[in-house]
Amino acid sequence: MYTQGLDSLGKEALHVSAADTAALEARFQARVDADDKIEPKDWMPDAYRHTLIRQISQHAHSEIVGMLPEGNWITRAPTLRRKAVLIAKVQDEGGHGMYLYSAAETLGISRDQMVAQLLSGNARYSSIFNYPTPTWADIGAIGWLVDGAAIMNQIPICRCSYGPYARAMVRICREESFHQRQGFEIMMTLSSGTPEQRRMAQEALNRWWWPALMMFGPSDAESKHTAQSMRWKIKRFTNDELRQHFVDVTAPQAGFLGLKIPDRELRFDETTQHYHFGAIDWSEFQNVLKGNGPCNRERMESRQRSHDEGRWVREAASAYAEKQRTRADAA
Amino acid sequence: MTEKEWPLFEVFIRPRSGLEHKHVGSLHAVDARMAIEHARDVYTRRQEGVSIWVVRSSEVTASDPSDADVLFEPARDKVYRHPTFYAIPDEVKNL
After folding, report:
1. Splitting chain A (331 residues) into consecutive groups of 10 residues, what average pLDDT does each group show?
2. Low-confidence ranges of chain B (pLDDT < 50)
3. How far is B91 from chain A (nearest CA, A)?
4. What is the largest CA-CA distance in chain A?
């Protein structure tokens, strides 16, 4: 959120010989180690910049695409209260996308470039949004599990070494906690309802449990970026640490709802004081990532359609502003 | 993409009267009026403000981080600018 309007880099970036780079990198790492924040105009290694652009833009795209599975239920929410809440939540997701795009822009990529990367399929978004929401209970499960997992991922990013990303994340986390609670409330209502409502809640949990665990990314052994990202303090905990923490806090919540987590191996381990859970089917994750999830094509078609259908509005707004400017200049 | 990108604006919000406007982020808009409308939706969904300023990002001139020492180092050894620099006996009141 400070801007590429301030985009000209500091002078020191302009005349850097190869010999100086090592010194700059050492100074950069020392600042990161000392928990100093890096700001847009500060010198940073190219790889740090590119890692952040990839991560922040991917995160922004996820917020934007994430509006689709839930927006699907706005017209069919069971009560006016639920509808008002869902609209507010979906609007928040749009806002979160905006905060994050702004943060990414401070690194020297433009908004239009990012949108183009999303629409051309060159940029990724969280694969969780490629699953369908066939019933109202899915909206509850998304708030409870998907937003719950997202919050767990995002809270440590509030302390990320890159200032604009950390600040965007603080704002987002503050807003997300209502998302998770409204989801849990939907699940509470359904699970204390009629047998049919209980079944809906259980089936939604069955659908979303494993995809939610996959949101934390590949296991530590497979994760290419973790070590470097932790050294740069972009990441504070490994994927497996966060996933374990999620299972530990979520399993008792499912117990409270009287719902059964779809994992036969799940049990509390007295010696480790953690829940043990079964192996994740990573082939499914890879398959969804490759574009073969249940809704990949539909999501991208929706994004593309709204981009195309909004074009005349963007053009008209630009033309109007231009006309106003010309008139003001002439006056 | 042939569309021209909308210019970037910096957004400042006054949380309530009596407090100063504070930078909260940035957004794209065709003009200042639209920037205020967008800022309302993006940055004040939870009553975060009572007043909004927007300014084109290109109008902001910023200091260069590599000038930080030149600009700010001279203040570092002037501790006598702070009241705690002066030792006053406890029995002296109202100082």
Report:
1. 44 64 94 96 95 96 95 95 97 97 96 95 92 96 97 96 97 93 98 98 98 94 88 95 98 98 97 97 90 92 95 95 92 80
2. 1
3. 42
4. 80
B25 in contact with A, Cβ within 8 Å:
yes
**Angstrom distance (rounded) from CA B84 to CA A71:** 58
Separation of alpha carbons A261 and A267, rounded Å: 10
Q: If you ran DSSP here, which 8-state letter would residue A121 be given?
A: T
Distance CA A101, CA A112 (A): 10
ipTM: 0.87
How far apart CA A53 and CA A58 sit, in angstroms, is: 8
Q: Which of A272, A251, A86, A118 is nearest to A182 (CA)?
A: A86
Q: Report the C-alpha gap between B6 and A315 in whole angstroms.
A: 10
Say what angle helices A111-119 and A296-309 make with each other, to 10 degrees. Answer: 140
What pLDDT shows up at residue A13?
53
Crossing angle of the two packed helices A311-330 and A296-309, in degrees rounded to 10: 30
pLDDT at A224 (0 to 100):
81
- Closest approach of chain A CAs to the CA of B38, in angstroms? 10
Q: CB–CB of A64/A124 below 8 Å?
A: no
CA–CA separation, A81 vs A325, rounded Å?
44
Does residue A31 sit in helix, strand or coil? helix
Give residues with Cβ within 8 angstroms of A241, minimum separation 6: none
Output the pLDDT for position A7.
44
Q: Which two tokens stand for residue A196?
A: 């049919």
φ and ψ at B54, to 5 degrees?
-130, 145
User: Using CB atoms, which residue from A5, A91, A314 is nearest to B60?
Assistant: A5
Structure tokens at A16: 């850097």
Residues listed for chain B: 95
